[in-house]
Amino acid sequence: AQKITQTQPGMFVQEKEAVTLDCTYDTSDPSYGLFWYKQPSSGEMIFLIYQGSYDQQNATEGRYSLNFQKARKSANLVISASQLGDSAMYFCAMREGRYGNNRLAFGKGNQVVVIP
Amino acid sequence: EAGVTQFPSHSVIEKGQTVTLRCDPISGHDNLYWYRRVMGKEIKFLLHFVKESKQDESGMPNNRFLAERTGGTYSTLKVQPAELEDSGVYFCASSRGLGEETQYFGPGTRLLVL
To answer: Which residues of A touch B48 (CB under 8 A)?
Structure first.
């Protein structure tokens, strides 16, 4: 069963506007972590933001924030004030908390194109 | 601080040949991971080293894949013999410790098996 779901089609975003990327997850483990990575056309995977399942507040990192809704099992990424350099594929990933299990499960990704 | 590096960046080989991918983690990171993304699919976990020991190799697809991390520093992933379905991007990642530690990814090796 798929653990991370990213279903949005490719998105075009106007420069300087905000964009929300959807991510829902499936786990029965009470301890887990959620990550967002960015993959520009050059191919590298860049870590953006992390949210732990026990964190009380939504994570923020500069222009990135994570809208964590635990009951709905969603962890949407919000990018504020989009820039041309934000054009990339964005991946949501989850690490489940069982001891020794540190592997990440990834979604299929969301393609974002920022237009001037 | 240097990031995760991978070599080669690209590799084109024929079916039946052998290819060895290398990953150098961030200095001081005990945990090293291999992932793979084949065309049109999600990025999938392959295995996890803690220092030189295999902590979790549940994602290794079959015995044509052999990963090593001698001395607990760099790691190699050998595919022998390569098949067409092995084509994809192979990512390496590293993290300092277990738990909430973020995994930092390398640029990937793009493997094409003809």
So the answer is: 102-103
Q: What is the pLDDT of residues A20-67, one digit of tens each?
A: 999 999 988 888 899 999 999 988 899 999 999 988 899 999 999 999
What pLDDT, in 10s, does the model give residues B73-114? 999 999 999 999 999 999 999 998 765 578 999 999 999 999
B19: Cα separation from own chain's centroid: 12
Whether B93 has its CB under 8 Å from any CB of chain A: the answer is yes
* No. of helices (H) and no. of strands (E), chain A: 0, 12
CA-CA distance, B80 to B16, in Å (whole number)?
A: 7
What percent of chain A shows pLDDT beyond 90?
73
Chain A residue with Cα closest to B42:
A108
| Tokens of residue B68, six digits | 């090593």
Nearest to A107 among B42, B101, B106 (CB): B42
Query: From the CA of A109, how many Å to the nearest CA of chain B?
Result: 8
Q: What is the torsion angle, in degrees rounded to the nearest 10, for the CA atoms of residue B30, residue B69, residue B11 and residue B17?
A: -160
Residue B97: the pLDDT is 75
Q: Which structure tokens are listed for B94? A: 């590293």
Residue numbers in B near A93 (CB within 8 A): 43
CA angle at A16 for the pair A12 and A19, rounded to the nearest 5°: 50
Q: Which residues contact B91 (CB under 8 A, 6 or more apart)?
A: A45, B6, B34, B35, B36, B37, B43, B105, B106, B108
CB contact, 8 Å: A102 with chain B?
yes
Selecting from B98, B99, B102 the residue whose C-beta is nearest the C-beta of A47 gives B102
